[in-house]
Amino acid sequence: MTDEQTFSYCSGDLSIELATPADYQRVGELTAESYFAAGHFSSPQDEYLNFVRKVAERATQTEVYVVRRAGEIVGSMTLIRAGSDYADIARADELEIRMLSVDPAAQRGGIGRAMVLAAIDRARLIPGINAVSLTTGSTWASARGLYETLGFAHHPERDWVVPNTDIKLVVYAYRL
Fold first, then answer.
1. Cα–Cα distance between 87 and 172 in angstroms, integer?
2. Tens digits of residue pLDDT in 153-174
3. What φ, ψ does residue 76 adopt, rounded to 5°?
4. β-pair type (14-18, 63-69)
């Protein structure tokens, strides 16, 4: 078994573990649903939402994790290393969090916090990884507040704009 297959994290009634192929459809739909419900996209069939639904493809190059509460998937995140086709900002010594999503019906219950803490724990187990990085929306105050309370620092020199849009994204990193 690989490190990611044996990695798990528990917080209260939440358990976080590597997604299995049986989880992939739910992960894709949950991610698309949570992003659409947050008002980030005008259509549930947006090109990016269709991209996040392709979990089986993503899992070949990344670590896709699920959060379970009472056996039900209520959240998901993808952890990515530099060099992957899915890496947006990861540097050679960073583990990047992408596609972090929480079921809209379960938001504000500590699921996002637990996933970020699990990502930090996972990063500490990978030789050569010295930081966890992520991108978030420049206007997403609650997400930015969560990352800052957990010790992430904004790195404005790494901020970027989504190609062919006016959407500004900001970069945070947590040094291990």
1. 14
2. 999 999 999 777 777 899 999 9
3. -160, 155
4. antiparallel
